[in-house]
Amino acid sequence: MSECLRSLKRNHMDNEAKVRRAFQTLLTYVGNVARDPNQEKFRKIRMSNPKFQERIGGMKEGVEFLELCGFERREEFLYLGSEKVNMALLNSAGSLLKSAITNPFFGVFTRPKEEI
């Protein structure tokens, strides 16, 4: 998961505001499910939603991060089945996102795996 976020930051470093907004949006999605995992509306994201497209959809790493959290592509949605909700994973993802948002050096001192 952390590599996914570092990659997102590296690949979009020319637009720090967009990266920050993506991280915050991902935290909202993950946090909503963690707070109320029985609420289906939090476990279902319409990928064609204009706000989703603006904040996450244009960044493959954002979608990959949600998939790593358990979301699956189902037609036009990213869906997290109630049986697939993993609270430990969601809490870990939330902590990682909070670190990415608050740490100005997040991902700066790491290199992609292919460069190591």
From TrEMBL:
Domain spans labelled PUB: 17-85
Coiled coil: none
InterPro entries: PUB-like_dom_sf (IPR036339), PUB_domain (IPR018997)
Superkingdom, taxonomy of origin: Eukaryota
This protein's name: PUB domain-containing protein
The species this protein was found in: Cannabis sativa
Lineage: Eukaryota, Viridiplantae, Streptophyta, Embryophyta, Tracheophyta
